[in-house]
Specification:
Two copies of one chain form a homodimer. In chain A, 42% of the residues lie in helices and 12% in strands. Chain A is built from eleven helices and five strands; from the N terminus they run ααβααβααβαββαααα. In chain A, α2 (26-38) runs antiparallel to α6 (103-126). At the A-B interface, α1, α2, β1, α5 and α6 of A face α1, α2, β1, α5 and α6 of B.
Chain lengths: 255, 255
């Protein structure tokens, strides 16, 4: 395998949740934002806005929504927001008569947001900093829309915290890429329990030996739970998307 | 601004669409896939599968769906597929009684796919290779599901081509990050035409001077068109998601 500094950092990715009480240097922050600016964007529409959280009161409230205490304590906390409001307003000012944004616009904004977040994360890690993504931003987007004063045609989609690591977690085992790359079409397995057998053992070992939040668990056990447990608000995300003015397109006729 | 090799590559990102007639070395491919394997994943569910396209006939058919000739000619073509089928089957084999995957599962898979694609792109560019994302994979997901023999609970979400660059395009101007990062909440502008005035000029200059596909255009003109033009199949993506067995959750009651 060919390696270089970038790839070495990428292969060493861990979720860093605890940070030294030291701000991220301005020159680092500038580099991270510059990388965000250069990130690829669907049809060049740049349909994502980053909300940088610096107000401790708001960070505390966001932490409560995410249900993770470390969110409020991180030196930097970004919320990536799918944003079609700017382009909608721009189109109107330009004299066009825009239709409410569709699910296609929404998906493009979500892609922009995730690409930007990962690109920034690579810059963060290359600078010797660390961080982690906050999927729990989806726990209650309605509350966040209120908290962040978000206009129509926008929706928070992902969070990210970063700073100087005060944590050195083990690498979390991953399912072998051999099982996740198929050639020319989908390759079904006869037994998925067989397919993840080795991985299950690795994960159990990982949970048995890591320091914090010890639990004995396996991937298949986790997935059995993940695929059966309702995630309440999160399953209703389309209702929130619709409430924000997006056209779900469910009444469109087939081509 | 702090710089290093990783960030220098990131700031130099361009969409590379044309490639030398030379395969990607096995050692490079291994590194790119290893980076994919280590990418962060929502709740660790790893709900994305990569379809690597090596069959020229299938690449040609995919090219027709994407409507971009260079897709069929790229040395490497990956399709990122949101995949809840594996975890659904795994849960069943484990004796659980899984509900059809929800939009929450779908969003987690889409996040996994985009994070992995961007992470791989950073590895690709660090190796001196180039590539671009194919948002046009969303042009007709129903046809692709057939073409790639995709099972229920899956959906193609993004494509990517890469190889040895035979193209050296200009950097495409971007809207200043100062307008895309807000602090502690959404910051509305009085006039979005004013906000993008400089950027409009930059974009017009970019289109006037670049070699290929010359057109005189501005960002606001593009967005006026993008926000008013229906994208047909792409606006109906939820119907395809529903057809693939996902529960859209529109009948769930408010909490």
């Amino acid at each position: 395998m060919n390696r270089n500094e970038t790839i070495t950092h990428q292969l060493d990715h861990r979720s860093i949740r605890f940070f030294k009480d030291r701000p991220v240097a301005e020159e680092d922050l500038q580099a991270i934002l510059a990388v965000g600016e250069r990130t690829a964007s669907s049809v060049g529409a740049q349909s994502v806005t980053v909300i940088r959280m610096t107000n401790q009161g708001l960070k505390d409230q966001l932490m409560k929504i995410c249900g993770q205490e470390y969110v409020a304590e991180a030196p930097e906390l970004f919320v990536f927001v799918v944003n079609l409001y700017r382009n909608f307003q721009l189109a109107k000012e330009k004299g066009a008569d825009p239709h409410p944004p569709t699910m296609n616009h929404f998906m493009q904004g979500a892609a922009d947001a995730h690409l930007m977040a990962q690109n920034m994360m690579n810059a963060i890690e290359s600078l010797g900093l660390g961080g982690c993504f906050l999927g729990n931003i989806l726990n209650d987007v309605d509350k966040e829309i209120e908290l962040l004063d978000l206009p129509p045609y926008t929706l928070p989609i992902l969070g990210m915290i970063f700073g100087h690591p005060d944590d050195d977690p083990q690498l979390k085992p991953r399912l072998d890429m051999a099982h996740r790359v198929h050639e020319n079409g989908y390759e079904k397995a006869d037994s998925y329990l067989d397919l993840v057998e080795d991985y299950d053992q690795e994960m159990t070992h990982y949970y048995d030996t890591r320091n914090k939040n010890q639990r004995s668990d396996s991937f298949s056990k986790q997935m059995a739970s993940h695929m059966t447990t309702s995630s309440e608000n999160r399953d209703r995300i389309l209702k929130s998307i619709q409430k924000q003015g997006f056209d779900l397109g469910l009444d469109l006729e087939e081509s």
